[in-house]
Amino acid sequence: MITSLFIDNFKSLQNFTINFSNRLTVLIGTNSVGKSTVLQAIDLLSYFGTGNLKEYSSKE
Fold first, then answer.
1. Are 7 and 44 in contact (CB under 8 A)?
2. What is the full per-residue pLDDT of the chain (60 aa) written as tens digits?
3. Residue 7's beta-bridge partner residues?
4. What's the whole-model pTM score?
5. Distances (CA, A) of 32 to 6, 12, 41, 58
């Protein structure tokens, strides 16, 4: 199980770490703080895991 994720130099995220709960992790914050960017980084990692980076780059 993944317990944390470090993101650096991805869109607006610089030197960012998120720790995941054993149960549920919720992203809460005001507009423009990076909630969607965290989800996009996780999405990109899933494409790395499947080796499907061409598909990821074509959906943007």
1. no
2. 889 999 999 999 999 999 999 999 999 999 999 999 999 999 999 888 888 777 877 875
3. 16
4. 0.81
5. 19, 9, 15, 25
